[in-house]
């Protein structure tokens, strides 16, 4: 972000009261180059001293370039009543910006707005974030007819996130000048930006949801003939899926029409067409430049708590609704004459369906690679290809060993017309669907499987074909998936035989004879390894396809039974879960991208990234009362569902925005987010990352309510998920177990742990606007105090300054068009003291 930063101070101001201390603020406006008017641009914070040196700087961004013709209006006000914004103008001047920036002189002196006596001077220092010299540059003020130009040190901002990252847009910059404990000066720069992932991630997820549901509908149609009872249920389930698909198509179409800002305003949180978008998603970076200390940056992502506001919270949020739903589903299963499947069983069924769908084409590809290696007549290549094929085929067989698949086959068989079981014939009770998983059959000697490998080419196609009986054979499934292992062993035996023959022939031949043998072999089709392997490989692929067909239909029937017991509540809950997860993933992806770009030069961080992963610490300030407890219950499930996500880093084709956007792949049980990096950045990544190793993220949620509703609830609830014991520091552990109301030290400790673990920080409340602003500004000032020796006398001033005129106030205005936090005095009385905004910065507004 190329911007011009001005530090402003006032000298010799007119007094406005008996105490001689005006509450001074400087307002800056810039002339519109295309219209004859001035545009309000920025202002300093209010300072209660006679000759104030303001903490906030004035920022002219790249959207407001300065030229010799540019006019900048500086107006100094005495704020008589901060709560009511009653002001009186001390003096106003309209200098040429070019003159200010080039230290040229101005004409006659400026006087008070009533034309009376001299009103004082304004001291302007132009700042650039960058390396600070050992000593501060201080020169004698040069009077410029009421305007003073003071050259100052040069400060360049490094690591700006929007030079390369076009997905971060509409930056808002604020610059501060704070004093350290040793009376030096530090420069602090806030930069807040929107993120295009607010829209792109939900759009991609909607498309993936629809693809998955359309695939499910197709699988249901391919189940074959079912009894009238199950056929009617199938039709009803398909109708439900079709309704969801249609709804998602409409939502996606509405989202495609949206233009303008890259975030969803807090006032739109309950709008149906925007329900998949995160609320008020912004990134915030604080850059600190101190004397004799390395520059440092601190990042945080702010967004409203992921929750289904359009669907409401009268019955609670996902955590409560899912628990109630599972209890009710058991009784539904009896009414619908179907087996009850727990969430674990359903998740396992989806995992099996996903695995076999991925492994079947992979096995086919590896089998073709084996044949290609055989055609090349290379023993090492042949053995390497065989190893890859064996590994994936064994993984495939292991996936199908699950007892759930065996039970599903029985259930599907009983749902088909004309089913008669052995047990029914003999008068015995039908077997229970809950069984103990049978072990993998012991490996069979190759000689037993393929008595004569050479003659396997003559094996009849139906030797190990799946038996078909009118009555159900419980051992049928074991024979089916075991046949895949048999086919693989035949291939292994043939490869071993060919490789052994090749090795013996090489040992028996002399050099010249070997060359002649190679020539003869390469031109002799009769000795082509490919021809010998091809029939065995073809039968392996046929057997795999046969098994996949049976397994898919069986597992699809499990999902049909689960869906039949879910009408209509289960479908509504799935839609709610889709909405919440969409918001949560957009927020997580934004934080991950920001963290990766910030740590590109940190070898330790990159090593941790691929060896261990990253902690994603979500801080929530929601109360455990009324509607907000429903939001918290939604957020709990949304954050927990992020465990199903992994990230991969890829190389972008170009540096164009469309090629740098993260790409989401997968289905509801597992998603992969691919993050493309520009070529040079990608080449600097460790080899493990460049090879596509999945990068894990460990989501953690801490919630402590701080508002007046939490006081009504009379308890403070900590929600912590999946933070391993090894990651607790002592202070955090003590705070977690302490029985204190509104124990916000939990949040402070958790944030400190996260930063020391190179993690990603997220902060949220209902709208990420008011309580979130108090938390972010408090965290930033605490970092300045603890890491950069901010003077204790400046701590409260710095905190009030950031809250009154910093990026968070700009966030409030972007959302509701008003520069007021939505608090009232009664609410603030219940807040912890450090979370209360300065006087005059709050007031009750519609949110």
From TrEMBL:
UniProtKB keywords: Hydrolase, Lipid metabolism
Residue ranges of the region described as Disordered: 420-448
Claim: Hydrolase is one of the keywords in the record: yes
Superkingdom field: Eukaryota
GO CC annotation, single: cytoplasm
A GO molecular function held by the record: phosphatidylinositol-3,4-bisphosphate 4-phosphatase activity
Protein name (record): Inositol polyphosphate-4-phosphatase type II B
Organism of origin: Hippocampus comes (Tiger tail seahorse)
């Amino acid at each position: 972000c190329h911007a011009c930063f001005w530090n402003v101070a006032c000298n010799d101001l007119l007094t406005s009261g008996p105490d001689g201390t005006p509450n001074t603020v400087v307002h800056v406006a810039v002339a519109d180059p295309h219209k004859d008017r001035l545009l309000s641009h920025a202002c300093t914070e209010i300072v209660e001293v006679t000759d104030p040196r303001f903490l906030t700087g004035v920022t002219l961004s790249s959207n407001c370039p300065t030229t010799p013709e540019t006019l900048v209006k500086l107006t100094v006000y005495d704020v008589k009543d901060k709560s009511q914004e009653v002001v009186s103008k001390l003096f106003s001047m309209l200098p040429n910006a070019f003159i200010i920036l080039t230290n040229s002189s101005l004409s006659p002196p400026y006087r008070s707005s009533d034309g009376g006596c001299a009103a004082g001077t304004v001291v302007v220092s132009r700042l650039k974030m960058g390396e600070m010299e050992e000593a501060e540059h201080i020169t004698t003020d040069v009077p410029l007819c009421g305007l003073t130009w003071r050259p100052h040190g040069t400060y360049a901002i490094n690591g700006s996130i929007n030079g390369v990252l076009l997905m971060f847009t509409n930056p808002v910059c604020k610059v501060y000048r704070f004093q350290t404990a040793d009376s030096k000066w530090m420069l602090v720069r806030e930069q807040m930006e929107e993120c295009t992932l607010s829209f792109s991630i939900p759009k991609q997820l909607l498309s993936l949801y629809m693809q998955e549901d359309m695939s499910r509908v197709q699988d249901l149609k391919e189940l074959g003939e079912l009894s009238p009872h199950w056929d009617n249920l199938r039709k009803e389930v398909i109708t439900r899926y079709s309704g969801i698909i249609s709804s998602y198509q409409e939502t996606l179409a509405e989202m495609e029409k949206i233009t303008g800002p890259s975030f969803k305003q807090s006032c739109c949180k309950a709008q149906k067409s925007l329900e998949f978008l995160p609320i008020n998603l912004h990134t915030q970076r604080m850059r600190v430049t101190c004397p004799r200390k390395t520059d440092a940056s601190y990042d945080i992502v702010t967004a409203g708590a992921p929750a289904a506001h359009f669907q409401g919270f009268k019955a609670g949020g996902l955590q409560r609704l899912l628990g109630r739903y599972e209890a009710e589903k058991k009784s539904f299963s009896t009414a619908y004459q179907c087996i009850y499947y727990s969430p674990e069983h359903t998740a396992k069924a989806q995992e099996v369906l996903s695995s076999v769908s991925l492994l079947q084409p992979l096995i086919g590809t590896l089998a073709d690679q084996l044949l290609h290696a055989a055609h090349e007549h290379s023993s090492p290549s042949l053995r390497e290809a065989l190893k890859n094929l064996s590994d994936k085929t064994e993984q495939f067989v292991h996936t199908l060993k699950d007892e759930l698949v065996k039970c599903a086959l029985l259930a599907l068989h009983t749902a088909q017309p004309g089913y008669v079981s052995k047990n029914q014939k003999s008068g015995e009770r039908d077997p229970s669907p809950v069984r103990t998983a049978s072990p993998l059959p012991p490996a069979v000697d190759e000689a037993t499987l393929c008595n004569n490998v050479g003659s396997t080419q003559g094996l009849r196609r139906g030797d190990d074909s799946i038996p078909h009986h009118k009555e159900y054979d419980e051992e049928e499934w074991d024979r089916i998936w075991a046949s895949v292992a048999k086919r693989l062993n035949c291939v292994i035996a043939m490869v071993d035989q060919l490789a052994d023959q090749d090795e013996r022939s090489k040992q028996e031949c002399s050099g010249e004879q070997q060359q002649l043998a190679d020539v003869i072999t390469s031109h002799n089709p009769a000795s082509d390894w490919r021809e010998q392997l091809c029939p065995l490989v073809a039968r392996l692929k046929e057997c795999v396809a046969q098994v996949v067909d049976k397994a898919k239909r069986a597992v699809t029937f499990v999902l049909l039974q689960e869906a039949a017991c879910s009408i209509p509540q289960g479908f509504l809950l799935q839609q709610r879960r889709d909405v919440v997860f969409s918001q949560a993933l957009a927020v997580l992806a934004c934080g991950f991208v920001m963290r990766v770009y910030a740590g590109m030069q940190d070898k330790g961080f990159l090593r941790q990234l691929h060896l261990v992963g990253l902690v994603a610490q979500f801080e929530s300030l929601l109360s455990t009362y009324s509607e907000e407890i429903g939001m918290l219950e939604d957020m709990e499930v949304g954050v927990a569902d992020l465990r199903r996500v992994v990230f991969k880093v890829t190389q972008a084709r170009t540096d164009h925005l469309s090629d740098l956007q993260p790409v989401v792949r997968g289905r509801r049980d597992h998603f992969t987010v691919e993050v493309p990096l520009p070529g040079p950045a990608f080449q600097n990544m460790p080899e493990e990352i460049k090879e596509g190793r999945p990068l894990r993220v460990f989501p953690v949620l801490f919630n402590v309510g701080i508002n007046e509703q939490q006081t009504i609830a009379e308890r403070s609830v900590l929600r912590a998920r999946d933070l391993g014991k090894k990651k607790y520091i002592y202070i955090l552990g003590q705070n977690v177990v302490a029985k204190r109301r509104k124990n916000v030290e939990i949040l402070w400790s958790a944030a400190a742990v996260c930063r020391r673990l190179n993690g990603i920080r997220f902060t949220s409340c209902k709208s990420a606007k008011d309580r979130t602003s108090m938390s972010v500004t408090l965290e930033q000032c605490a970092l300045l105090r603890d890491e950069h020796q901010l003077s204790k006398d400046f701590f409260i001033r710095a905190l009030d300054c950031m809250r009154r005129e910093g990026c968070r106030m700009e966030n409030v205005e972007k959302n509701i068009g008003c520069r007021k936090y939505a608090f009232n005095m009664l609410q603030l009385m219940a807040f912890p003291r450090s979370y209360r905004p300065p006087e005059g910065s709050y007031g009750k507004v519609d949110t």
